[in-house]
Amino acid sequence: MSNPSEINGGSVVAMVGKDCVAIGCDLRLGMQSLTISYDFPKVFQFNNTFLGLTGLATDVVTLSEVFRYKVNLYNLREERDIQPETFANLVSSTLYEKRFGPYFVGPVVAGINANTGVPFIAGFDLIGCINYAKDFVVGGTSSDQLFGMCESLWEPNLEPDDLFETISQALLNAQDRDAISGCGALIYIITKDKIVKRLLKTRQD
Q1: What's the pTM?
Q2: At what angle do helices 160-176 and 143-153 cross, to 10 degrees?
């Protein structure tokens, strides 16, 4: 039996820069080698925090709605926006609740703390174990290729424009080497005072 996390393909990467953070994903939805859609973004925004979800497409859609519900409840109860560190713990506990029948996803969280201005990124396994990182985290079927590209291209203290160029080149080159992800990319560059969303077009085969 094939790995359920790899049936629909997809890839996500997050990177830290100088007082900024970036997260990007591909746009392909497939059934292994059969492409179903060219417009299936895997990054979801929750105020100044972003969640990237790769894996089984039904679980991606389900979990994105579960987290939107939980974040709205948090905002109502606490009367403030959720911060990336708190959101990471929310993701971890939500996944661990289902550890005996887990969601087949590989979440990545990225954001900037609105109070301190410190960039934050983290990755998770499918039962919620948190992997904190100071440089980059990757997820999805092109993880191996993304690790290689990010290790080659990433540098400390990148400015927002340089960070955009770095994460774009890493994502595009990695998905070129993975048959079940691609079909364009969506990149978010997050700083303390603004969020920039950019769409990258690639070949559609």
Answers
A1: 0.92
A2: 140
Query: Tokens standing for 25?
Result: 């994903």
Of the options 3.90.78.10, 3.60.20.10, 3.90.226.10, 3.10.310.10, the CATH number for the domain spanning 4-200: 3.60.20.10
**Paired tokens of 180:** 């079940």
Q: pLDDT tens digits, residue range 16-48? A: 999 999 999 999 998 888 889 899 999 999 988
Residue 24 in tokens: 């990007």
Q: Are 153 and 166 in contact (CB under 8 A)?
A: yes
Q: Which two tokens stand for residue 37?
A: 């859609």
C-alpha separations of 196 from 9, 23, 191 in Å: 26, 11, 9
Residue 133 CA to residue 143 CA, distance in Å, equals 15
Work out whether strand 11-16 and strand 20-26 pair parallel, antiparallel, or are unpaired.
Answer: antiparallel
Domain coordinates in residue numbering, the chain: 4-200
CB atoms within 10 A of CB 29: 19
User: How far is 49 from 116, CA to CA, in rounded Å?
Assistant: 14
Report the C-alpha gap between 10 and 56 in whole angstroms: 9
Q: What is the pLDDT of residues 97-147, one digit of tens each?
A: 999 999 999 999 999 999 899 999 999 999 999 999 999 999 999 999 999
Q: pLDDT by residue (tens digit) across 48-106?
A: 899 999 999 999 999 999 999 999 999 999 999 999 999 999 999 999 999 999 999 99
